[in-house]
Design brief:
Helix content: 25-40%
Shape: globular
Order of helices and strands: EEEHEEHEHHHHEHEHEEHH
Keywords: Amino-acid transport, ATP-binding, Cell membrane, Membrane, Nucleotide-binding, Transport
Radius of gyration: 18 Å
CATH topology of the largest domain: Rossmann fold
Organism: Caenimonas terrae
Distance between the termini: 35 Å
Protein name: ABC transporter ATP-binding protein
Number of strands: 10
Number of helices: 10
Number of domains: 2
Pfam family, one: ABC_tran
Family: Belongs to the ABC transporter superfamily.
CATH class of the largest domain: Alpha Beta
Largest sheet: 6 strands, mixed
Amino acid sequence: MNANLLELQGVHTHIGAYHILHGVDLAVPRGQLTMLLGRNGAGKTTTLRTIMGLWRASQGRIGFGDQDITTTDTPQIAGLGIAYVPENMGVFADLTVRENMLLAARKAKHAGQMDEKRLQWIFSLFPAVEKFWNHPAGKLSGGQKQMLAVSRAIVEPRELLIVDEPSKGLAPAIINNMIDAFAQLKASGVTILLVEQNINFARRLGDTVAVMDNGVVVHSGPMQQLAEDEELQRTLLGLAL
């Protein structure tokens, strides 16, 4: 079995006339949490969207397990066990928290068919999801919406969880809660790829790290190595952790 659950090899992505990714090489090891870092505009979100088939790779290969998913449609990619939480969270504001969760639980036709044991586990990670179960999702705070978005992504078992900037705009207490939740998710065996700007978040959670700049990965390796090397941090990110 390949040690990497997800691999990108020489991936290019064009959006209209714009050439955004210029040959991305990225490996996401099984059972680990990989941080994808970089300045704004480096190509991180485009990389995630390309993995999910929302934008097509114009060159290169994307492998998931032993499958080539480079040209696979998004619904089929999701069906392989990959969940994606976009930066805007994608919460349906007019639906209740329960209805949002039910939409993601594709094997359930009504709330009573959702896996109760799994729901209780999710409630233990994100108590607000249980507290506001019958409330409209649009009335939740930013942090609560982020908890709902992640909860929705894991309402069914997933092999790979991809999340774009989960701590963006959140209060420190909510960020700590999110860090604890991702640590528990990783301990449960879920492989995770996170785009993040909060450096403390990255340092506390990451096993491996890839740093992007101008549409390519310019550094990859253990997160601890980057966290301990201030000169490397300044070179790659323009700041010290």
